[in-house]
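User: Hey, quick favor. My workstation is busy. Could you predict this chain's structure for me?
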Amino acid sequence: MPEAIPIKDHEKESRLVNKRLLACAVLVVAISCALVARMYVLQVVEFDYHSTVSENNRVHVLPITPPRGLIYDRNGVLLADNRPSFNLTIIRERATNLKGELDTVVDLLHLPPEDRTLFDKEMKQVRHPFVPVTLFYELTEKQIAVLAVNEYRLPGLDVQAQFVRHYPMGAHFAHSIGYVGRINEKEAKTLDSVEYRGTQSIGKTGIEKFYESELHGHVGYEEVETNAQGRVMRVLKHTDPTPGKNIVLSLDVKLQEAAEEALGDRRGSVVALDPSTGEVLAMVSKPSFDPNLFVTGISFKQYAALRDSIDRPLFNRVLRGLYAPGSTIKPEVAIAGLDAGVVTPSTKVFDPGYYQLPDFDHKYRNWNHSGDGWVDMDAAIMRSNDTYFYDLAHRLGIDRLHDYMAMFGLGEKVSLDMFEESPGLMPSQAWKRATRRQPWFPGETVILGIGQGYMQVTPLQLAQATALIANKGVWNRPHLAKTIDGVAPVDEHPRPNILLKNPDDWEQVNHGMQMVMHNPRGIARAAAAGAQYRIAGKSGTAQVVAIKQGERYNRLKTRERYRDNALFVGFAPAEHPQIVISVMIENGEAGGRVAGPVVRQIMDAWLLDQNGHLKPQYASPTTAPGNPHV
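Assistant: No problem, here it is.
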């Protein structure tokens, strides 16, 4: 039989279609309600939030780095400048493939692998969003052209004109002014994130570091509107930065050059002070280095050459060099003996060429092995007689000797604005017990009387101690800054002046130091030959390695770097001192013969005019033309 044909139920199908249409209508209404509700939330409820986010995507606040303050010498010669440079910068937020773009830059500019490593270090530092990071300084015209052609491959990278630090005098002032360098990760964590936003470098050493807050200035800002690609469309607001303060140093370029010329190629240091003010007139540490190498990032190879050099050009000998002072401290020991009352100017000691402590067989040798016979204080200073000062130190004892030397700043930091200065060491009984766990022995006091033993001082401390003798005990702490934005720096922690029981003791020691230079038997008379002014000086020859009892120093059997150091301190004119000089020559051997002429040459450069005549302002008030006492 044929199959039955089902009859179509139109009513049922109509009901099904209606249900589906109703469901669709409900769904459309629900979706429409959800969209309207979402639009209400976005445009009404969360309007403030989203408008702010939108504005932040469109408007950015960019820092404007303040120009760093300039540094001049006392006569207005520019020592630290800001030089315009075209630098390669990157804004990380705009880079699409940061690693790939950095690799492309290295390939395009043919940079060494170490530069690529430096790029990575710069990228790792925490910085504010949309702040340009400087990758490479001082682009050449060719490099700028290559980057311009490939700009489409390097989104986020740009060539910007910026100021970079420049030191016109190069190595001449590297150890006093110091240098700036790139901010490292450790420094970035401690710096004010607001003030240093956009700043790429910071003072690392010297004046650049000590006066960083004054030299840096205050950051400025610029509100800019950008498009979707991050390009600046217009400037909405501009706030100028405040430039750093200019600093005038007390250093004198001509005297600095004269000091370097006098020192020659020898390893050593020179520091010259104005005793009446404490101003540092010259500060030389040789060998030196070019600070410009550090400004934009020194290469690994260049730094290794400086760091590993046996001559240590990076080492500031004036502030950090610790040396036995030798006989240069005998004037201070003489002051201590006079003020303590253990000797008088006429006290005599017999010198057979050596000194022995009571009940001891050990002989402490005088440099003159044949002896000087009976010597008083004048003769002891003039001849630099070791035996006299062995005896004087023994009479004083270590406690009084330590206290008097501390009054002169030996074993302590003495400067006002040189943070790198080492305190040195003036030993005492307490120091030896604490560090060596041993008692103090009488023989250790004896050798301290001639500046040997545990004592270690810096050339700056020697200059300051000598300035106190020239200044009759008035303390003026050494400083490099003469004015900061026209204002002289203030010593907020002044040292107390040295007040002697008998002020005439200053003149007594001054006279003895003049005899060193101007007496026919003076130990450094050759250095003062033909001088148009009176010089007060004291030589020193300090051992680098100890010599066995009974043996004599033989330079031919001693390696060059183990030979004695040559030192000399002096001031002039002796009647009214205008300049104090301390010279140290490593392994120079003879203070009077080697370091003495260096001091004389520097004094001539400061006190004499171009015709070789004493400048009128430095003439003695008792001998100046027109003085009724002439």
